[in-house]
């Protein structure tokens, strides 16, 4: 496995290896501080970023490498140079490429033409690096035995909902996406892929359209902002109205298991998708989750560059 372009690229064994190493990096960040010695990693972002940029740059530095941050307007891509040519050029200078952009097809094309590992650090379709951080946080909370537990995402059926269902299926978990019907439901093709993966992993994938039944007896309630980058402001009123029943409230959390936690990929809008008392409360693990963006990207870089990941058949 050369690249991580989509969550579904990972096998269960890959995820377990990545999480084991990331847990080690959490305890000892400099454990492998010569892995990227005298090497560079390009970090190309056409979307603004806090966690992904900081975690990526610090992950490279902890491995002994030098991160090269590139904004969307700083390459000749903006003047018509092709993605394929750009991939080949970056491959000649750097040992890996981390990209955060809009179109999944751009990331796929970079992966196809680069000779170095390409890591999808968010597209409009998928967010695999976030899900690695999420699952390391879940493992810290509940251990490796997740039988009988339910993991619920509530809100917009966006890239986060897609990644949540796919990764949960890979891990053999019972995962739920509770969303409105119609325009803000998850992509049916992604749901189908998640369900196919779950058949082999022993997992269970559900898409529901009612928050209370989804939250009942859940171990995790997870949400994301309602208006993502690139969303049309003209849709805001309609979208907020549709998503309001899926806000994570104290009442919703009261329906969950006693040891349940609240998770959010951040940034958060308190008073919209989550009540302030929930995200700032005792069940919230958002800061640990954000911390693990670095440990998991560090692990991902380490294992991709060493050629340790096998990939999945999906």
Automatic annotation (TrEMBL):
InterPro entries: Asp/Orn_carbamoyltranf_P-bd (IPR006132), Asp/Orn_carbamoylTrfase (IPR006130), Asp/Orn_carbamoylTrfase_sf (IPR036901), Asp_carbamoyltransf_Asp/Orn-bd (IPR006131), Orn/put_carbamltrans (IPR002292). The keyword Transferase applies. GO terms for biological process: citrulline biosynthetic process; L-arginine biosynthetic process via ornithine. GO terms for molecular function: amino acid binding; ornithine carbamoyltransferase activity. Residues 148-303 form the Aspartate/ornithine carbamoyltransferase Asp/Orn-binding domain. Residues 2-140 form the Aspartate/ornithine carbamoyltransferase carbamoyl-P binding domain. It holds the Pfam family OTCace. PANTHER family: ORNITHINE CARBAMOYLTRANSFERASE, MITOCHONDRIAL, ORNITHINE TRANSCARBAMYLASE, MITOCHONDRIAL. This is Unannotated protein. The lineage of its organism: unclassified sequences, metagenomes, ecological metagenomes.
């Amino acid at each position: 496995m050369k690249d991580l372009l989509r969550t579904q690229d990972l096998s269960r064994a890959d995820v377990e290896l990545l999480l084991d190493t990331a847990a080690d990096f959490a305890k000892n960040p400099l454990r492998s501080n010569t892995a990227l010695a005298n090497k560079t990693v390009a970090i190309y972002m056409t979307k603004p970023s806090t966690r992904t940029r900081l975690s990526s740059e610090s992950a490279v530095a902890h491995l002994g490498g030098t991160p090269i941050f590139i904004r969307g307007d700083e390459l000749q891509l903006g003047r018509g140079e092709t993605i394929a040519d750009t991939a080949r050029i970056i491959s000649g200078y750097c040992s890996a490429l981390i990209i955060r952009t809009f179109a999944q097809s751009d990331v796929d094309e970079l992966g196809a033409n680069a000779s170095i590992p390409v890591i999808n650090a968010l597209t409009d379709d998928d967010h695999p690096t976030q899900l690695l951080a999420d699952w390391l946080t879940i493992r810290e909370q509940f251990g490796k035995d997740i039988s009988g537990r339910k993991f619920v995402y509530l809100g917009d059926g966006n890239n986060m909902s897609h990644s949540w269902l796919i990764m949960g299926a890979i891990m053999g978990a019972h995962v739920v996406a509770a969303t409105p019907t119609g325009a803000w439901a998850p992509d049916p093709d992604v749901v189908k892929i998640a369900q196919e993966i779950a058949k082999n992993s022993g997992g269970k994938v559900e898409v529901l359209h009612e928050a209370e039944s989804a939250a009942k007896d859940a171990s995790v309630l997870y949400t994301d902002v309602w208006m993502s980058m690139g969303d049309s402001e003209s849709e805001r009123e309609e979208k907020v109205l549709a998503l309001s029943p899926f806000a994570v409230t104290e009442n919703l959390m009261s329906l969950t298991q006693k040891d349940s936690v609240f998770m959010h990929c951040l940034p958060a809008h308190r008073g919209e998708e989550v009540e302030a008392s929930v995200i700032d409360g005792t069940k919230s693990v958002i800061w640990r989750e954000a911390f693990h963006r670095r440990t998991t990207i560090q692990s991902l870089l380490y294992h991709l560059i060493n050629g340790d990941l096998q990939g999945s058949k999906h």
